[in-house]
Amino acid sequence: MQVDCKELSRYLEARLPETLELLETMVGINSFTTNPDGVRRLAEVTAETFAALGFTARTLPTTDPELSDHLLLEKPCIGGSEGPTIAMVSHLDTVFPAEEEVTNHFHWRPEGNRIYGPGTVDIKGGTVIIYMILSALKELYSEVYAGVNWLVLLNAAEERLEPEFGDAAQTIIPADALACLVFEGGRLRGDRFFIVAARKGMVIYTIEAEGKAAHAGSNHKGGASAITQLARTVDAVAGMTDYDRNLTFNIGAIKGGTVRNRVAHFALAAGEMRAFSPELLDEGIRRLKRLEQDNGVQTYKGDFACQTRVEILRRWGPWPPNERTDALLEIWRAAAKEMGYKVERQERGGLSDGNFLWDHVPTLDGLGPSGGNAHCSERSPDGKKDQEYLELSSIVPKATLNTLAILRLVEPHV
Q1: Pick from 88, 167, 199, 256: most CB atoms within 10 A?
Q2: CA 78, CA 54: separation in Å to the nearest integer?
Q3: Residue 295 banded pLDDT, cuts 50, 70, 90
Q4: Contact indicator for 128, 379 with CB cutoff of 8 Å
Q5: What CATH code is carried by the domain that includes residue 365?
Q6: Cα–Cα distance list, 133 to 8, 34, 413 (Å)
Q7: 99 and 243 housed in the same domain
Q8: Please, which residues have CB within 8 angstroms of residue 349's CB and are 6 or more apart in sequence?
Q9: Taking the chain, what is the end-to-end CA distance rounded to the nearest angstrom?
Q10: pTM for this one?
């Protein structure tokens, strides 16, 4: 298949103004995960937009009353179900409540090569790049476009990583699909695209310390402080992090005690652990559970020892390096070479929908625009805090790369 990279880039560049208008509309809709009306409105705008490309929309119902339904966009190949399938994944929700956007004056704001706003890079920018890719294929490579079964799946609650969407996606995406392409933001630095080929798994847990209350003035020696016990345990958790093996532990929140003149009888810490392999996650869980044996904080007489309990609340499996992802990465690397660019393999600590799908169908991630400060709505005068943004100059190159790679991917099949 003869593909003119320059012609493709010119087409995408010409579509950029209308793409930015679409993105501005999307960014202007608050789609905080637990704002179902806003998420639903964004889904409606997205469905209307993709309808122009021949996609039909249906919802994937959620079982959580706090959330909106997920969105599935489908366009079967002209010949029916015999054509190859490609799935593209984005999400509808962001992490910013409406009041936070107002308080921090966080809205669509172009400034030089940056466009600031909620969801610009995580992940509404990824959704519009999907739209650009499919528009280019429909206009410039109509036979390819007609010969593929296209699926676009948008998670309504990706920021909570509930398994519901992943379970539904595994049912919808056939196991023989050519690829699942996830459009989380991905860096572009100079002539190098950074494509995500693996992600850590995560375990969340709580550590609870039970102590013995006592008057801090008149009977301090009769108490056993749960806060002191928990402080010892938290320090031990911090020492478990092993950067050489990409195993990290984090305590994100602590609460305990009631008033300052009482020896604390209770304390609780909430934490998470991340690693690239199931074996390391298993090891980390075993080490956490062994902390229950540390009951070193006691009353002065030793007649009561604090108790430590570790509860594993939930586990998400890692997306480890694997051959099928690497095979896709080579196709993207060849496409980048045609453009005069390079592809760098990236392994990320954060999770995405790719964690649910990589072992079901070959998966790549980080295919959305380049940007920064995801999940941040704050600004400070000294610039040390800044808001989420995408890099305008990355949009056309990322859309070009993905379109070229998809053409190479489907060439033997259509």
Answers
A1: 199
A2: 11
A3: confident
A4: no
A5: 3.40.630.10
A6: 10, 30, 19
A7: no
A8: 199, 200, 246, 248, 274
A9: 11
A10: 0.92
